[in-house]
């Protein structure tokens, strides 16, 4: 490491970055280092010629709570000086970040400027490949690391270097062994490919679907007939999941003039997920909030009130700086004078949680009281809590475990909005979010908390009642998303039997099939009400 020292702590020595073991990990700088940037100088074995064309890095998501690695600049050397710092290092050319066989999907989110890679977040975990024009006679590499500020370093498991053959001229098909993508419905699925040759065209004669468990979902294979040296391309497949939301697999056989691998098998896995829910609820104005026990965050530029100012470019914290008491309760009051049928809460969190570690849990409660002193109100547990992706939320959903009305966050990777939905609470006047973290002096970094209400109508119409092909009654009525409905039945309009009391309404209309209906009943009546 220049300037040093490199990491020396037992169990995380810098040499673990090139020990060939991805079960170990180290850091790009020593603990407490404030100097930036730092340069990692790595020497190759002596006595052989290395035509260097690729470097692999195995990084760790979350970056050990150190924030994103701002950038890596890649240089190489052909010198033999025993003093690595005395060697001359020069920039690689035509640098790109690729996902090759054995790398981890998806690629990291990066921006590339010449021989510098800027990492835009810290969510990637595992190997990715840095490829560039082959450099003959390489004896070592330099990775110059720049981070967000002092006392920062990047957590890595391994750094690897790869050489091409001495000539490097033959056509060379580069493609991941498995390509995994997520979709919300039918469309085109693309498999990235690349010609790794420095001089010769890669000719692709055929791409066929030759296997897989769900080949019927794939069709119409399109591919480039020729890729010039170092050129990228795509194999495109038409995909149709019908109405099935599951995993679909196909195996492709690619025929080309790659002399080392003229027929290459790759696997395509498509995960079809339901599209985000279209919201039909309306935003409630949060007008007041406190932290109990306090005080709430008061530092200029991160005041607690920024959690409900409607501006996602500001951020705050769930507790004040230096707070050791846990859990803490955020009590938020809605505007007065209107009826709020609370149905959803949105939270906009910050990836990495400002180096505070994961937020252990949030417990959600609601109040219908109107006492001006928020701590005097009675707050009740919400029912049927789920974390769901709505349109406008940020994919993917956070990694959570839900117990009752408590959400446990298992990591700090998620960044942006996600939605918490539950049984609608009529007449809600405010919410309580009880936060528990890993330990003292911890808090959660958030940009915004929002609350949403649904306008449940007092009267609604049953728009269809009929029998399905199995002879079961089907009732369809005008409904509001997330409102809870109860359905009752009667044979004489005097005595009523409740069939269900927890049917969640859909946006627009909701159907109900009375599966327990017995054929031969002379007549039956149904009525529907909101809970």
Q: Could you walk me through the main structural features you see in this protein, from its secondary elements to its overall organization?
A:
It is a single chain. The protein is mainly beta and 531 residues long. The chain has four domains: 14-164, Galactose-binding domain-like (Jelly Rolls, Sandwich); 173-272, Immunoglobulin-like (Sandwich); 282-453, Jelly Rolls; 462-530. It has strands spanning 26-27, 38-43, 51-59, 71-77, 90-91, 96-98, 110-113, 116-119, 126-135, 140-146, 155-164, 173-174, 178-183, 187-195, 202-211, 218-222, 226-227, 232-239, 247-256, 263-272, 282-284, 286-292, 316-317, 328-334, 342-349, 361-367, 380-381, 386-388, 400-403, 406-409, 416-425, 430-436, 445-453, 462-467, 473-479, 484-490, 497-504, 508-513, 525-530. Strands 22, 24, 26, 27, 29, 30 and 32 form a seven-stranded antiparallel beta sheet that branches. Strands 2, 4, 5, 7, 8 and 10 form a six-stranded antiparallel beta sheet that branches. Strands 21, 23, 25, 28, 31 and 33 form a six-stranded antiparallel beta sheet that branches. The protein starts with 25 loop residues before the first strand and ends with a strand.
What are the defining features of this structure?
mainly beta; Jelly Rolls; 4 domains; 531 residues; 6-stranded antiparallel β-sheet; 7-stranded antiparallel β-sheet
